[in-house]
Amino acid sequence: MDPSTVCLSVFVALISMVAMFRIYKMNSFRIRVVGYRSQTMCHACHAITARAEANCQHCGKPLRAV
Ligand SMILES: [Zn+2]
Fold it and tell me: What is the pLDDT along the chain (66 residues), one digit of tens a residue?
């Protein structure tokens, strides 16, 4: 095994590790965005509350009322 082959294999391993890390970061970022979108702001008290709830968790007013 000559030094250039060792150098190339180490380089390829490093590049694949960086690519895998970037994919992992992208997935965690996407999960965070989805989690952010599942929240909404109460129009009455301006508190951040879960969109799944029908009423505000802070003041109890309905979130979907216009
Ligand atoms: Zn509220």
Answer: 788 899 999 999 999 999 999 988 888 877 776 666 678 888 889 998 888 888 888 899 998 755
**How far is Cα 14 from Cα 59, in angstroms, rounded to an integer?**
52
Q: How far, in Å, is the centroid of ligand 1 from the Cα of 28?
A: 29
Structural domain harbouring 29: 3-39
Q: Which of 33, 60, 35 has the alpha carbon at shortest distance from 47?
A: 60
State how far the Cα of 43 lies from the Cα of 37, in Å rounded to an integer. 16
53: left (phi over 0), alpha (psi -120 to 50) or beta: beta
CA of 48 to the centre of ligand 1 (A): 8
Q: How many domains does the chain have?
A: 1
